[in-house]
Write a structure and sequence with these properties.
Length: 437
C-alpha cells in the first residue's frame, strides 16, 4: 500500500457510512488518479457505492470527445458515470463562470448524506493561496480551499489536498493510466495558468518547498479563521437581542450592542452573520457600514450589498432581500380565510366579518384608527408608538369598511371587530433565501 493510498484512506475513513461517494471526474490526471485509487480500494473492502460525474461545459470543440473517454475509463473500472451538460453564463471571468456552473450542477446531484469527492491537490492549494494573495484576500480567502464543506444537501471533500501533483503523476505512470490534457490549461492569458506555468516554477527554483509552504500557511490561516468564526458566534450571542415583533421573519441584530464592539470585531461579526446571505465587499468598500452605523438617530440609511440591503430601524440592524426590495402590488380579491398578497406574504382572516363594504389596502397617508378608550388616533403616530420599523409600514395590510380604517394587521383593530371575534394576521415575506437566524 502506497503513502497515497494511506492518506486517501485516512481522509475518507470518517465518511465510510455515507449513502454514496460521488466523484467529480473531469478525465484529467488528478481525478483519474482519484477514481483509480477508489476503484482499487473498493475491490478489497466494502465502500459506499461509487458514482462518477462528468460536467461537460462545451466551451471547446476538443471537449466533445471527453465524455466518451470518461465513459471508457469508468467502464474499465466498473464505476457508473453520468455526464451532465451545463451552460456557462457570461461574465468578466470565464474561469469563474465555468466554476460556478460546474459546482451548481454537482450540487444538484447530492442528496442528504451524500459525499462528493474532488481531486484538488497540494499544488492547487498553493496556486489558490497565491492567486488570492495577489487579489488582496483576507484570512478567509488565504485559508485556501477547505478540506471539506457543505455543498447542496451533501458534503464536498478534497481527500488529496495534502498530496503533491508529482505524487499523482508518478502513480498514474506506474499504473499506466491515460488521462485528458485540457489545452486551455496551456493558455497563459488565464491568470491561474500564468501562476501555475510561470510564477510557481520560478519560485520553486529559489524555494523548493514553495508549494508545500504555501499550503501549510493556508492550513494555519484556516485555523485562524476558525477562531475568528468562534469569536463571531460569541459576539452574535450578545447582539441578537429580542425582537418586539415575533411575526417579522427577518434577520436582525441590536445596533447598540454591535457599536460597543471594536471596529475589527464589528467587521468580523458582520462578515460571519452575512456570509450565508450575500457576498461581502473587500476591506476598501466598507464605507456603507460606517455611514449606516454612525447616521443620525432619525436618519434612514441603507447599506446596499450584492444580494440585499442592511437597514437601520428601532435600534436594530435588519437584513432585507428578495420581495422586501420591491414595492408590493396593492392587495386585491375577496377577503377569504387565507389570501395571498402579491409580493407581500399572505393574510389570514379568522372569525366572520359583519355586513359592510370591506376592502384591503396599504398606507397612503392620513389614515386614522378609532381606539377604544383613546378615541381617534392618527395611524402614523400609532406606528411610531408601536415602534414598527419604517420599512414595514408601507406593507402593513389595512382593513377598511368603506373609507373607515378598522384594523391594522397584527397590531390593532376596532372594537366592533373584536366583539365579533375577528382577527387579521399577516405573515410577511421571508426574503430571497430560506434564512436561518
Amino acid at each position: 500500500m502506497t503513502s497515497l493510498d494511506i492518506r486517501l484512506r485516512a481522509a475518507l475513513q470518517p465518511w465510510r457510512t455515507a449513502p454514496v461517494w460521488r466523484v467529480a471526474f473531469s478525465g484529467g490526471l488528478d481525478s483519474t488518479v482519484l477514481l483509480h485509487l477508489l476503484a482499487q480500494w473498493a475491490r478489497h473492502e466494502a465502500l459506499p457505492p461509487l458514482h462518477a460525474l462528468h460536467i461537460h461545459h462545451g466551451l471547446q470543440t476538443v471537449a466533445e470527445s471527453w465524455p466518451a473517454h470518461c465513459a471508457a475509463v469508468c467502464q474499465g473500472l466498473d464505476i457508473e458515470l453520468d455526464v451532465v451538460r451545463v451552460q456557462v453564463g457570461s461574465g468578466a471571468s470565464l474561469e469563474q463562470a465555468a466554476r460556478q456552473a460546474r459546482y451548481a450542477a454537482l450540487a444538484e446531484w447530492l442528496q442528504v448524506g451524500d459525499v462528493l469527492l474532488s481531486a484538488q491537490h497540494r499544488d492547487d492549494q498553493a496556486e489558490t493561496v497565491l492567486f488570492r494573495l495577489l487579489r488582496g484576500a483576507g484570512v478567509r480567502g488565504l485559508a485556501g480551499m477547505p478540506v471539506n464543506r457543505t455543498l447542496g444537501k451533501g458534503r464536498l471533500l478534497r481527500p488529496l489536498l495534502g498530496c503533491s501533483r508529482a505524487e499523482l503523476q508518478a502513480y498514474a505512470q506506474q499504473h499506466e493510466l491515460s488521462w485528458i490534457e485540457d489545452p486551455s490549461n496551456q493558455d497563459e492569458r488565464f491568470r491561474r495558468n500564468f501562476l501555475r506555468r510561470q510564477i510557481l516554477p520560478l519560485l520553486a527554483q529559489h524555494w523548493p518547498q514553495a508549494s508545500a509552504n504555501l499550503a501549510r500557511s493556508a492550513a494555519h490561516l484556516s485555523e485562524a479563521q476558525q477562531l475568528l468564526d468562534e469569536l463571531a458566534e460569541v459576539d452574535l450571542a450578545t447582539v441578537r437581542g429580542c425582537v418586539d415583533f415575533a411575526w417579522l421573519p427577518l434577520p436582525s441584530l441590536s445596533l447598540l450592542e454591535i457599536s460597543a464592539l471594536s471596529d475589527a470585531r464589528q467587521r468580523n461579526l458582520l462578515r460571519h452573520w452575512l456570509a450565508p446571505l450575500t457576498p461581502m465587499p473587500d476591506s476598501d468598500h466598507w464605507a456603507g457600514w460606517y455611514d449606516l452605523r454612525d447616521a443620525h438617530a432619525e436618519a434612514m440609511p441603507v447599506w446596499r450589498l450584492a444580494a440585499g440591503e442592511l437597514h437601520r430601524a428601532d435600534g436594530r440592524l435588519w437584513w432585507l432581500s428578495g420581495e422586501w426590495l420591491q414595492s408590493p402590488v396593492p392587495p386585491i380579491g375577496t377577503l377569504v380565510e387565507t389570501l395571498e398578497l402579491p409580493g407581500n406574504g399572505c393574510l389570514a382572516l379568522t372569525g366572520q366579518l359583519p355586513a359592510g363594504q370591506w376592502r384591503l389596502a396599504y398606507r397612503q397617508g392620513g389614515e386614522s384608527l378609532y381606539m377604544a378608550g383613546r378615541g381617534r388616533r392618527d395611524l402614523k403616530r400609532l406606528l411610531n408608538e408601536w415602534r414598527v420599523p419604517t420599512f414595514v409600514r408601507p406593507r402593513l395590510p389595512l382593513l377598511f369598511d368603506g373609507d373607515e380604517l378598522v384594523a391594522v394587521a397584527n397590531l390593532a383593530q376596532a372594537a366592533q371587530l373584536a366583539e365579533c371575534g375577528v382577527s387579521l394576521q399577516w405573515s410577511p415575506p421571508i426574503g430571497a433565501q430560506g434564512l436561518s437566524w
